[in-house]
Amino acid sequence: KKHSQTDLVSRLKTRKILGVGGEDDDGEVHRSKISQVLGNEIKFTVREPLGLRVWQFVSAVLFSGIAIMALAFPDQLYDAVFDGAQVTSKTPIRLYGGALLSISLIMWNALYTAEKVIIRWTLLTEACYFGVQFLVVTATLAETGLMSLGILLLLVSRLLFVAISIYYYYQVGRRPKKA
């Protein structure tokens, strides 16, 4: 009659010889030899829409560039958008740059992940940001009455960016078609 402790030790030795139960190089714990051979099925089901990574890269560059411009050259950024209007204080523009820099770090990290949830959250964050920016600029335009080519281009580009981000958000969230 075997004792439970020696039975446990022999079972662990058997699993070690078979190569199951331990971690592999990716940190995954395999329950069976079949899971080791087949690998992780999640890696095969992720289908990225065409152009997603390009859009993520463009977004990260855009957020980083505007953030650096807002931090380093707040007068020029304000002048480019509001066409000659004088800046009363540089602090809000620099705070805006700091917030954009934080968002850009999230965008850069999302570029290197394959997790659908993280990609979708960054796309939703981006769409919300561009949507809020569109509303704020439109409200400022209504208050001040300033109209310039820079403001019109900003508004049109923000609507386009919202549309692209929402498109990819839904495309990443779609269930893959069965083959």
Automatic annotation (TrEMBL):
- Localization annotation: Membrane
Give TM segment ranges. Answer: 54-73, 93-111, 123-142, 148-170
Q: Could you tell me the keywords of this UniProt record? A: Membrane, Phosphoprotein, Transmembrane, Transmembrane helix
Q: Which GO terms describe its cellular component?
A: membrane
Q: Per the annotation, which location comes first and is thus the protein's main one? A: membrane
Instruction: Using the record for this protein, list the coiled-coil segments as residue ranges, or answer none.
Output: none
InterPro entries per the record? TP53I11
Provide the topology term for how it sits in the membrane: Multi-pass membrane protein
Q: What is this protein called?
A: Tumor protein p53-inducible protein 11
Write down the species. Macaca mulatta (Rhesus macaque)
